[in-house]
From TrEMBL:
Belongs to the LysR transcriptional regulatory family. Gene3D superfamilies: Periplasmic binding protein-like II (3.40.190.10), Winged helix-like DNA-binding domain superfamily/Winged helix DNA-binding domain (1.10.10.10). GO terms for molecular function: DNA-binding transcription factor activity; sequence-specific DNA binding. It comes from Acuticoccus sediminis. Residues 1-13 have a biased composition (Basic and acidic residues). It comes from the Bacteria. The keyword Transcription regulation applies. Keywords: DNA-binding, Transcription, Transcription regulation. This is LysR family transcriptional regulator. GO terms for biological process: DNA-templated transcription. InterPro entries: LysR-type_TF_proteobact-type, LysR_HTH_N, LysR_subst-bd, WH-like_DNA-bd_sf, WH_DNA-bd_sf. Residues 1-21 are annotated as: Disordered. Residues 28-85 form the HTH lysR-type domain.
């Protein structure tokens, strides 16, 4: 092939003018995509404009141009705020994931040569208190070249608006664009202090729970008393799950129960040490739940060395849903 023919082929993108993969990509209006992602995330033009430090009119123009490019409405303006159309709901998680991965890559490039790898890990509060601290300590001892940035929040599923490398989440089984490794499925057993349990002697479980103070764990986007309602349904009990005290974390609810404050539903494997030590007494049968703890990450990160190490470490410790890792002899901190 002559030099001139080769140059013509390069400009055309391939043999006989075939376009290259890059030239086939549609033009992406990054500012408009960023504007839509902010409005959709905040559900408000006002809040999105403030977060991006631009005017609402500019933001509105960007979103309008993106809708023109796609040929579909992405947002609906309502008196109560902004709602996503089906097209907008399909686009938002793709954009958010893409922006997160771009940010992660840029952060990684900045850190190259600047020191150890920083791994951003999220764990629910109770998991972090009971298991996470010792797991992270053991991981750091095994892999001192990987630094850990730990965050924690209560709720179901992945926390919103957080840039994470890997997360342990409390959730139901679901199919999405994430890799999810089940660590274990959560069960529920009613438990209380020995003093409260003694008062239940000779009474039916239904009668005891109708009179006892029920202790709840609050979950974002879940109704009050969801676990007690499910337990009563499975056991055929006439318990009013709407009463009692609610706590931000299971660890706080368990501490209140051990102090004689009421009856809490515990996951046996999580709180077995307290039961064995006599600080908690189970007063009813165990039922299964739809919830579990999952190790979650993005499939694009499966080959990241630090994430792969952490994933393998945690899966080996929990043996794919088997017994929990051994706990230290001291009680967890409040």
């Amino acid at each position: 092939m002559s030099r001139r023919a080769s140059e013509r082929e390069d400009r055309a993108g391939g043999p006989e003018g075939a376009p290259s993969a890059a030239s086939q990509r549609i033009w992406l209006p990054l500012n408009a995509l960023r504007a839509f992602e902010a409005v959709a995330r905040e559900r408000s033009f006002t809040a999105a404009a403030a977060s991006l430090h631009v005017s609402q009119s500019a933001l509105s123009r960007h979103v309008g141009r993106l809708e023109e490019l796609i040929g579909r409405r992405l947002l609906e303006r309502r008196p109560s705020g902004v709602a996503l159309t089906p097209a907008g709901a399909a686009l938002l998680p793709v954009l958010t994931g893409s922006f997160d991965r771009i940010e992660q890559t840029i952060r990684g490039l900045r850190q190259e040569g600047a020191g150890p790898r920083l791994l951003r890990v999220h764990m629910p509060p109770t998991f972090l208190t009971v298991f996470g601290v010792d797991l992270l300590k053991a991981f750091r001892a095994a892999f001192p070249g990987v630094l850990i940035d730990v965050s924690s929040s209560n709720g179901v599923g992945l926390p919103a608006s957080r840039a994470l490398d890997v997360a342990v989440v409390f959730d139901k089984p679901r199919v999405d664009d994430r890799v999810r490794d089940l660590l274990w499925t959560v069960s529920c057993t009613p438990a209380c202090s020995p003093e409260v349990a003694a008062a239940a002697a000779g009474r039916s479980l239904d009668d005891f729970l109708q009179q006892a103070e029920l202790l709840h764990v609050k979950l974002e986007n879940e109704p009050f008393g969801v676990f007690w309602a499910d337990y009563a349904r499975q056991r055929g009990l006439s318990v009013d799950e709407r009463r009692g005290l609610a706590f931000d974390t299971e660890a706080l609810a368990v501490q209140w129960a051990m102090a004689g404050g009421g009856v809490v539903l515990i996951d046996d494997g999580t709180w077995q040490r307290e039961v064995d030590a006599g600080r908690l007494v189970t007063v009813g049968p165990t039922v299964d739940t739809a919830y579990g703890y999952y190790l979650t990450l993005h499939p694009d990160d499966l080959h990241d060395p630090a994430i792969a190490l952490f994933r393998s470490f945690l899966i080996n410790r929990f043996a794919g849903g088997g017994p929990r890792p051994p706990l230290p002899p001291t009680a967890p901190a409040p």
